Amino acid sequence: MSARDDQSGLPQPEKALSSILAQLSIPRDPAGLEHEDLVPAERHANAAFMTSSLRENITVTRPGIHFRGGLLRKSPERSDVATWLERLDVRPRNSEFTMADLSGGNQQKVVLARWLRMKPKVLVLNDPTQGVDIGAKSDIHKLIDEAAAEGTAVLVVSTDHEELVRLCHRVLILRRGKVADEMEGGRMDHDLITAATIGRDRSSAA
Q1: Count of domains in the chain?
Q2: Element of type H or E holding 195
Q3: Radius of gyration of the chain (CA)
Q4: Sheet arrangement for strand 122-126
Q5: Which among 21, 70, 88, 132 is least surrounded, fewest beta carbons within 10 Å?
Q6: 156 lies in which domain range?
Q7: Global pTM?
Q8: Interval 62-108: pLDDT, tens
Q9: Share of the chain residues as helix, strand and coil, in percent rounded to the nearest 5
Q10: Whether the predicted pLDDT of 12 surpasses 70
C-alpha cells in the first residue's frame, strides 16, 4: 500500500488500520486489536525501548506467560527469546544487550520478533525497512514472506515502491484517506505506483 503522508487523511495508526481493514474487507475482532499487530515506521520513537535489553523488548507484549505464582521463570523466558533471536538472525545474539547496541537492521528484527511471537492474524508493517542496510532489508523481506506463508495476513504501508512490488500481491494507493488506485499481479510496477501516488495518469508514466 502506498500513501502520501501529507494527504492520507489517516493521522492515527488505529484509525488508519480500521479504515484499511474495512476497505480490504478483512473482518476485525469485536474486542479490539488483539489479533492485529502494528509495526510503526519510527521505531526509535514508537516501537523500540532503546535502553532496555533485547529480552525485554521482545517479551514486553506478552510477559505473563513466563510467570508462575507471581514469580518470573527466567530460564524459560531466556530460552523463548533465544529462539526468536536465532530465528530472525539477530546479531549479536545476546538477549541482555540493549537495543542501542544493535544496528538499525537488527533493531528492526527485534521489533518484528516481538510481534511475530504473538502469532497475529494480521500484521501491519509501516515502512518495515526504513533506515536499514541492503542485507538487513533482504532478511526482513524474507521474514515477511515466511509470516505470510504461515497464514498471517500482512499489510505493508511503504514509501519504497520497489518494496511494495517485491512484497505485495495487491497494491492500493491512498490519497486523502481514500483508495485512489489499485494494482495487482503483472500490472504492478514501481514507476506506475509512483505516478498513481502523485496523481499522474498511468499512461504518462509508461
Answers
A1: 1
A2: helix 190-197
A3: 18
A4: 36-39, 122-126, 153-157
A5: 70
A6: 2-205
A7: 0.77
A8: 777 878 888 878 888 899 999 999 999 999 999 999 999 999 999 99
A9: 45, 15, 40
A10: no
